[in-house]
Amino acid sequence: MLGIPAVLIVGILSVTGLVMLAIAADHLVLGSGRLAERLGIPPVIVGVVVIGFGTSAPELVVAGTATAQGHAELAAASLVGSNIINLTVILGAGALTAGLAVRSSVLRREAPLSLAAVTVFAIALLYGLGPPAGLALTVALIGAAILLVRFGRSASRDILAAETDNYLEATVRPRLLPETVRTILGLGGTLLGAQLLVANASELAIRMGLSAQIVGFTLVALGTSLPELVTSIQAQRRGDSDLLVGNLLGSNLINSLAGGAIIGLTMGGQALTMAAPLVAAMVGVSGIAWALLARGKRLDRAEAYLLLVVYLALLPLIS
Known about the structure:
The protein has helices at 4-38, 43-68, 72-95, 110-127, 131-154, 159-168, 176-208, 212-224, 226-237, 241-266, 276-296, 301-314; strands at 100-101, 298-299. It has a two-stranded antiparallel sheet. It is mostly helical. 80% of the residues lie in helices and 1% in strands. It is globular and about 50 Å long.
């Protein structure tokens, strides 16, 4: 058994991986978003798809790394936990100061698509996440991407486009070389941070007698959700509520379809299943968040506190 100093070192390395993920993914989001606009991709698509993929990069890298190292349960739990944290802790925290008002088409288009993606991922986890389910999730991801591109083209004047430009500070034409370097370094830092986090979080779980599901749902999920938190804080400070909500919905869609596909296609042998209560909670949280936002196209402080309480109430499910 590891002594206290060794456990402390493992813990420090895990936290180092978390910090590296947050910083690197932030630069990956900015770099890839600016490059996408430099290449002429519509801002609405950048806001939901490109930034969504950027903030989901840690979840996807961790999912692939953990599954390849034989920790598929940790990978799946981190995706489920991240989906729940995005629409409880991060969405709730974003509305605590002055509430959130949603004026774009996000609730009409991206929200139901995100809920559908989470539901498909949940079904795969209940009936067995293996190569066949991974292939089905890949097909669903391609279909969702096509729909999002169509949404973006038909909503070129949507307020989300202006908020995306504001977030990326796209008042001038981005320079290609600096943003390319930023994107590459951000991706490299994300990969290294994910490796540090997975290796040391798994070791910490084993040495402390915790299950992979507990560590994945809490430590790893919280760590991989840091980019969404950073993006949300920056968006809310600028008053870009639609970008905040669109990013969280897009991130959950990508976590579910791309992350689930990575786990399914990387796994060998027996398919992975997860307990129904936790999977149902993930779908339920997605529905609750959508219902609260759609009710008056805003989220007030009382509803923000409700989302935070929901997260705390779900923690006993992982024990």
